[in-house]
Amino acid sequence: MNKRNFIKVSGLAAGALIAGCKAGTAGPAAGTVKGIGKSGGTLKLSYKPYELQLKHVFTVATNSRTTTPVVLTTLEFDGVKGFGEASMPPYLGESHESVLNFLSKVNMEQFRDPFLIEDILSYVDGIMPGNHAAKASLDIALHDLTGKLLGQPWFRLWGLDPQKTPVTSFTIGIDTVDVVREKTLEASAFKLLKIKMGRDNDREMIDTVRSVTDVPVFVDVNQGWKDRNYALEMATYLSERGALFIEQPMPKEQVDDIAWLTERSPLPILADEALQTVEDLLPMKGIYSGINIKLMKCGGMHAAYKMITMARQMGMKILIGCMTETSCAVSAAAQLSPLVDWADLDGNLLISNDVYDGMTVVDGKINLPDRPGIGIIEKKSGNL
After folding, report:
1. Looking at the structure, do residues 188 and 114 belong to the same domain, yes or no?
2. Is residue 50 part of a domain?
3. Share of the chain above pLDDT 90, in %
4. Nearest-angstrom CA–CA distance, 14 and 63
5. Distance CA 268, CA 321 (A)
6. d(CA 374, CA 91)
7. Which of 34, 37, 65 is nearest to 52 (CA)?
8. pLDDT tens, 129-178?
């Protein structure tokens, strides 16, 4: 198939996919697009490790760091490239070594039709258990590639309105009063802040932020509170200071304590570390009020779409979040943002060496670029 006919067929296929998604029959691009995959091409995978440099020391309840390891992936088909990313913060248990080892086992060249998304991702998932960030890097690249082949962004292929994106939060890590005040002032363009807690200065953190701004906030404790009575006391204190919800207040193993807290808390309690994949979702009912979905935890856009659908059926609130990531993975997650209640997609804003341009934040709100795939382009200067 020559390029002109290929693009023509792709454009027609995009309309069919959009219609299917709006009718509720297709889900996230589950089928084959007629005519694609007959060109004799194969999927080609390449990847390279990279180290993200954080603008500030990033401190949460359990650790501090100044860098985050990532692996950048590329899937190519008929000269068109899709980009993906695996980000590996410490608690996920993945590393450069583990992701590179996983990707070395992947044989994408067996696939001659990139639109067989279910088949391709099922094959990837079956290579080894776990390795969700590694799998997400392939899922994101595949979605970017297929969107580019169709000439459409994924929010449009899912039938979503880009005007319905939420505001996104900006993260204030645990720090001294002066630094927290400085970070809060730097975030003046944002309409929602995420405040890290879980050490011995919880009240100081919220009070310092409130001395600078009255914008809505939510709190991420990263399992830092061990006593349920203290957690309830803090939930009450935070509700009086304009907090919207609390993310993972206690260790995920303390299921009974978290259920007790959720029942009594004046604020919704969301699962983060307690939830990774779609298989983890059903047991969350009755324990948490909502969930935080991250592509690096669940395995990518395809799984995240399924989790959002299931969580809505369960009556749960949904936050879509990220790790410290380039604009690649953040923009991929942003494609889903019109479907959720809240967004925490600032990972690309916390680093100094991004290699892509993608989603932006305009007046505190997620702005989805009208570019195909996940909407990213490589930076011309490059940091690689």
Report:
1. no
2. yes
3. 82
4. 45
5. 16
6. 26
7. 65
8. 999 999 999 999 999 999 999 999 999 999 999 999 999 999 998 999 99
Q: Mean pLDDT throughout 7-18? A: 38
**What is the distance between the alpha carbons of residues 346 and 327, in angstroms, rounded to a whole number?**
9
Residue 196 falls inside a structural domain: yes
Does residue 251 sit in the same domain as residue 132?
no
pLDDT number for residue 64:
73
> What's the full length of the chain, in residues?
384
Sign, CA torsion 303/305/306/310? positive
DSSP 196: E
- Same domain, yes or no, for 335 and 253? yes
Reference 71, options 91, 90, 46, 92; nearest CA is 46
Nearest partner of 113 among 146, 155, 143, judged by Cα? 146
How many Å is the maximal CA-CA distance in the chain?
A: 67
In this structure, are 127 and 200 located in the same domain? no
pLDDT score of 202 more than 50: yes
Paired tokens of 75: 């899937």
DSSP-derived secondary structure for 110-172: G-S-TT-HHHHHHHHHHHSS--HHHHHHHHHHHHHHHHHHHT-BHHHHTT--GGGPPBB-EEE
* Residue 98: domain span: 3-32+45-157
Q: What is the DSSP string of 48-88?
A: EEEEEEEEEEEE-SS-EEEEEEEEEEEEEETTEEEEEEEE-
Cα 345–Cα 272–Cα 286 angle in degrees, nearest 5 = 130
What is the count of structural domains for the chain? 2
Among 226, 224, 166, 223, smallest CA distance to 346 is for 166
Strand, coil or helix: 178: helix
